[in-house]
Structure formats: C-alpha cells, structure tokens
Amino acid sequence: MSKQTYRVCFCFRRRFRLAVAEAPDEIRGFFNRYSENGLMSADHLRRFLVEVQKQENATLEDAQAAINSLQELKHLNILHHHRGQSLNLETFFKYLFGDINPPIDLKRGVQQDMTAPLSHYFIYTGHNSYLTGNQLSSDCSDIPIIQALQRGVRVIELDIWPNSNKDGIEVLHGRLQSSTLNQESDYLLLLFTVILSFVRLRTLTTPVELIKCLRSIKEHAFTASDYPVVITLEDHLTPDLQAKVAEMVTQTFGDILFCPDSDCLKEFPSPESLKKRIIISTKPPKEYMSAAVPKDTQEGDSQNGKTASDEEAWGKEVPHLKGPASGNDKEETEEDEDDDEEDPDEGVNRFQKSLAPEYRRLIAIHAGKPKGGMDECLKVDPEKVRRLSLSEQQLEKVAEDRGTDIVRFTQRNILRVYPKGTRITSSNYNPLIGWMHGAQMVAFNMQGFGRSLWLMHGMFKSNGGCGYVKKPDFLLKSGPNNEVFDPRATLPVKTTLKVRIYMGEGWYYDFRHTHFDQYSPPDFYTRVGIAGVPADVVMKKTKTLEDNWIPVWNEEFEFQLTVPELALLRLEVHEYDMSEKDDFGGQTVLPVSEIQSGIRAVPLHDREGKKYNNVKLLVHFDFV
C-alpha cells in the first residue's frame, strides 16, 4: 500500500503517500565504509562491530551468527551468497533496526558481584503488592503479586488482618482516615467509594486470603529471577493468629524459607547465598489493636501535600529533587512521636506475652523505628543490622541536612522508602531521592502507571533484570575519617553521553491509522533526557515532523553526567496535537551504565510498560 486516505468530510478525502523505511545517510555512510562492491561480508561486519559498535571482543563467528539470524529475510531476495553470505545495504539496515541489536544486552544475564550483603544492593520493591488499583476501592488479589514477580520484583508487601470471624487471616488494605485525604478530589473519591461499597454491601477493599497469596508467591517467585524474594508483612494480628501465620508460612515454603540461626543478624547474607529462598521481614508487633488503621497513617505520613496525578494519561513530569521537602514540620514530628515501630530488641520481655514465638522465629529481617527521633533511627549498630521505613516526605526532610547520615546507615542496614498516604490513586514518587542516598527498598505501587514507575522499570533492566542491582562503590565506601558520599555535593562531570535520534518506525503496524489524528498521519516528536542526581537532570526534544508514520529526525543531544552510575536515559515519543493534549506514542527508560555504544534499535513500551510489537527508535549512543 503506497497511499493512505483520510476522510475529512462526506465529500472530501485527503490522500498521503506512505513512506518506506530507508537507511538514513549516516547509516549509508557506515555501510559504504565497511563493505566492498555493495556487499558486507562477515569480516566487514566484524570490523563494524568492533570499531563502531564498540564490541571489542566481537569475533568472526559473532558476525556470521548475526548474518545467519537474518535468514527469515531470504524471501525478500536481499541476502547475497558471494564468497559466503553477505549483507547488502537493505539487510544491513534491517539488522541495525532489528531485535538482534538491542541497546541493553539482557542475554548476558547477571554481570555484577552477587556475594556482598543484601544491604549493598538496590532491590526491586513493591508497595501494597496485593492491590489491583487505587488504595481505596480496588480489589485485593494475588494477580498483581504474580504480575510483579513475573516482571522481576523481589520484595512483596502484604497487609495481614483478622477476617470477620477473627479466626482466619486475610490480606487487606486498612481503612483510610480523614487525615490522609487533603484534596477535595480525595473526598469525592472517598464518598463515591463509600456509596459504591454500600450498594455492593462490601468493604472498601475486597480482601484476599493470605494462604492464596503465599501459594502464588511460592509458584511464581523464581520465574523471572533465582535471587531471593522478601515478603514484608504489615501485621495487625493477635498472637493466636500470628501462630496460624507461622504455620501457613512454614508449611507453604518449607525448606526454601530462610530462618536465621540467631534472633538478630550481625550482617545480612548475600543474594547469591540466598538463591531461591524466601525471606520474611516485619517488626515484632505490639499488643493487638482491633482498630483498623492503615499502615500509611501509622508509619507517619499525614502531611498536607498535593495529590500526585502521575496516573493521568502518560503521567505528569517526574518531581524534581532540588526543591525543599513539602509538608508540615509540626505534623511530621508529632507523627514520628506516635510511630508504632520500635527497635525489635527494645522491650523484648514486654512483647513476649503478645507474640507467638514460632512467628518471631520466622523474621529474618527485623524492621523497627527506635524511639528517640532520627538520631536513634539512623544510628549504626556494629552488632546487628535492621530495616528502617521512612515515607517519601520523611526522607526528603531528613535528607535536607542529614544526607550523609542516611548514606552511612544504608551501608550496613536496609532503608525502605514508601509512598505518602495521599497517593490514594496508587501514583508514585521520584525514586532517585532514595537511590542517591543508598536506600535499598524504594517501594512502588506497581499497579500504578506514569513516568515515575517507568524509571523504576528502567533501573531494574540492569544486571540481567534479576531484581538486584549492586549499589555504586561510592555509596558503599567510607574514608579514613568515616566520611561518606554526600548526595548534595557538587561533583565534576565524569562522562558525556551523546544520543543521536535517527528515526522511528512501527506505529503504522501497532495503531489504527486514525489513532493519532482523524484527518492526517501523525506528527511525531521525541523527548530525550536524563533522570538522576539533580545536577544531571534534563529533558530535551526533537523537532516535530508532520504527517509521517516513519519520522526521520537525525538530531543529536549531549548529556554531561556527574553521576552516570545512577543516571537513567529517558526516551518518549509524542504526537503533536494543536487543539488537545499531545498523544502518547511510546516510551522507554534505559540505565546509562548498561547502554551499549553504537547504533541500536530501541524498542518502545506503552504506558503500562508493555513492549510494543513493532514500535522502535534507531539511536546512536556514544560515550566521550
């Protein structure tokens, strides 16, 4: 089909010529340089791989394998057999724009050292992993848990409550208090939810049985990765029900459950030593309180703040990290004082009567927030390690003047950061605030959508997608005077990433021809930028190309990076709309540290992070 027709009105139609994907001039130049008489042999291709693609170890066999992979194109009569198989310009272009030439080589698998303690890794972490949608009215189910595990998420969070008869355990999100709702829209959503729940004669969130969740975790825990899965339990149970949980967990997981020999670990084990193991993390609970208060409120987050709207369309821009933390300091302090987390070893005797001993033995990673303010929270104990939880706003506030204390704490201990309570639509925050301070468990609502979640997906494409990413050395090292990395320090530029956006294709096959515009082909542009430490954050864009399903921008952008180890490259394609909001055309996020130099085919994903069948960009990456 060479032309496409759009109906403008009953009697008038517009016809547009359909472009054919052709190699840009620079690609033609590379082909001419690494070919002879219009043919590129395996040896020519090997030289191209070494010199342009920077694959220094590429062999003749690698080049021949790449040529062989194009055998399915034989019917197009574009493979040549002259002194062995060779490529012409069209096949060379197909190779560069094909799935065999990705920006990140996931087939390499795990590349990082996995023998360090768990505290030395960023861990793919979910928040309220059982929810199918918003925090108020969505169903609780094991399906989101399964989907998270299949994506590679390694930390699953379950809120466990007594059932209505007080004789069984359910996974359920707690009832929301009014202090969590700070926007008019929040009250409207709550009112609608209450009416809906009344009509359906059911609670705000429909519970799911704990045993069903545990069985699903066991079945799917290691489908995407062999490295350990941590289950964080938010416990609202009586001692007798805790004993039931202990029995369920023990019987479900059996030998794969990791139970430490001592009550408190002096150092966390390594991911390598815990392969295909399940780890339980929670805090030793206090006396059971029957009031169903949600953990987001308990953990100290009733601050006034704007409800994020990441969930709209393709999501609002990722919040910047340079500004002061929002929130009410007085409320923050009061909430901290009433926080229900405690040092797991503080007042053990007080807990003994209310804590089932078989339940306590299951806890491998002890969580707790000691009394005494942030000084005690961030104190490093050389004799034991633990997990501390802070809301995103608490972390921002503490990081203003205690950033190095957080880094020092996370060198041995685990810090979990969770979304503020006002994110009732299951939106997310900027994960870099946690990562740049060494936080291992940056907990996200995986069922939400938007740019923040795209960053999370992008980070954990690293290290073979195993769900564990080794923290950069500068977050793990201490100087002779115990000095550590200062997240607020001004650093010199370490490297420069050059990104040339050649072109894109695939929308014609993955979308209806009127999806973007009723009256003409789409007008695409690309946004390209960096998410990372504040000094590295930037977004740029190409020009808009009108009426073209196969846009050829051929524009280059430079990004000077002070902390490339934490930098994420963001690529988004949008379709310009003069009268309405621009349409979404695909996105991806790539960890800069894993990007392969050279000309690469970059597949794009939809809003939910699912890869399109055909949509991709042709991009040249170069580090200088």
UniProtKB/TrEMBL annotation:
Describe its membrane topology: Peripheral membrane protein
Q: Where does the protein end up?
A: Cell membrane
Q: What's the top EC group for this one?
A: hydrolase
Chief location bin: membrane
Presence of the UniProt keyword Cell membrane in the record: yes
What does the record list as GO biological process? lipid catabolic process; phosphatidylinositol-mediated signaling; release of sequestered calcium ion into cytosol; response to stress
Going by the UniProt record, its keywords in alphabetical order are: Cell membrane, Hydrolase, Lipid degradation, Lipid metabolism, Membrane, Transducer
Hydrolase as UniProt keyword: yes
Q: Which GO terms describe its cellular component?
A: plasma membrane
Task: Tell me where in this chain the PI-PLC Y-box domain is found.
Answer: 389-475
Which residue ranges does the record assign to the C2 domain? Answer: 477-606
Disordered: annotated span:
287-353
For this chain, one GO molecular function annotation is: phosphatidylinositol-4,5-bisphosphate phospholipase C activity
Question: Biased-composition ranges for Acidic residues?
Answer: 331-346
InterPro entries for this protein: C2_dom, C2_domain_sf, EF-hand-dom_pair, PI-PLC_fam, PLC-like_Pdiesterase_TIM-brl, PLipase_C_PInositol-sp_X_dom, PLipase_C_Pinositol-sp_Y
Q: What is its EC number?
A: 3.1.4.11
User: What's the cofactor?
Assistant: Ca(2+)
Reaction(s) catalysed by this chain, per the record, are: a 1,2-diacyl-sn-glycero-3-phospho-(1D-myo-inositol-4,5-bisphosphate) + H2O = 1D-myo-inositol 1,4,5-trisphosphate + a 1,2-diacyl-sn-glycerol + H(+)
Identify one Pfam family in the record. Answer: C2
Name used for this protein in its record: Phosphoinositide phospholipase C
Q: What is the lineage of its organism?
A: Eukaryota, Viridiplantae, Streptophyta, Embryophyta, Tracheophyta
